[in-house]
Design brief:
- This protein is α/β, with parallel strands linked by helices and about 200 residues long.
- It has one domain: Rossmann fold (3-Layer(aba) Sandwich), CATH 3.40.50.880.
- The strands form 3 sheets. The chain has a 7-stranded mixed β-sheet with strand order 2-1-3-4-12-11-10. A 3-stranded mixed β-sheet has the order 5-6-9.
- The longest helix is centred in the C-terminal third of the chain and has 13 residues.
Length: about 200
């Protein structure tokens, strides 16, 4: 199982450490060619407007959009959720999201850097329940979703971990938390898309 991490800008190194620790191989994605060898992709936190512009200048936007539409599992965190959203509130006029998950996201929805916070999260995924410390740094706020979007965790009624088909997205930074459970959830999604959970068991052995 080979997981790509979009490495144009942002906090991709911490995601790499978690994924390697779980036994996955990792490719840092910077060009369209890098997409050809990956089974799933992480879009990390960072600065969403810069990330949007770099998707265009790198030539990644269209091939990445095409692969997501064809079923590539994608996991976006913080700014990554904004990049994947279908609508951005308070975004720049030239900031185009990938329209991969049916949510409206507000940039810096909880305030500026000084308003960053940590809180305990309860994550419900079917019959499975996980707990971890959620780290929110200039986090976006999910203002609305549709019935197609599963809400896996909330803070004060706000969705903070969501999933729609092949897209998983978090408003927080699970790579900075005290548990790899969200990354494990994503690897299970990738394994299922690769036709068998045995591949996930293999990377954990």
């Amino acid at each position: 199982m080979n997981i790509g991490i979009l490495a144009l800008q942002g906090a991709f190194a911490a995601h790499r450490r978690v994924l390697v620790g779980l036994g996955a191989s990792v490719t840092l994605v910077r060009t369209p060619v890098d997409l050809s060898s990956i089974d799933g992709l992480v879009i990390p936190g960072g600065e969403s407007t810069t990330m949007s512009m770099l998707l265009d200048s790198s030539g990644l936007r269209q091939p990445l959009s095409d692969r997501i539409k064809s079923g590539l599992p994608v996991f976006g965190t913080c700014a990554g959720l904004i990049v994947l959203a279908n609508e951005i509130v308070d975004g720049r006029s030239d900031q185009l999201p990938l329209d991969a998950i049916d949510v409206k996201a507000r940039r810096n929805g909880y305030g500026r850097q000084i308003d960053s916070f940590e809180t305990s999260l309860e994550i419900i995924d079917g019959l499975n329940e996980y707990h971890m410390n959620g780290v929110f740094i200039r986090a976006p706020r999910v203002e609305s979703t549709t019935a197609n979007v599963e809400i896996l965790a909330q803070v004060d009624g706000d969705p903070v971990l969501i999933r729609e088909r092949n897209v998983l997205a978090a408003t927080f930074h699970p790579e900075l938390g005290d548990s790899p459970c969200v990354h494990e959830m994503f690897l299970k999604m990738v394994a299922m898309s690769c036709d068998g959970t045995a591949q996930f068991e293999q990377v954990r052995s």
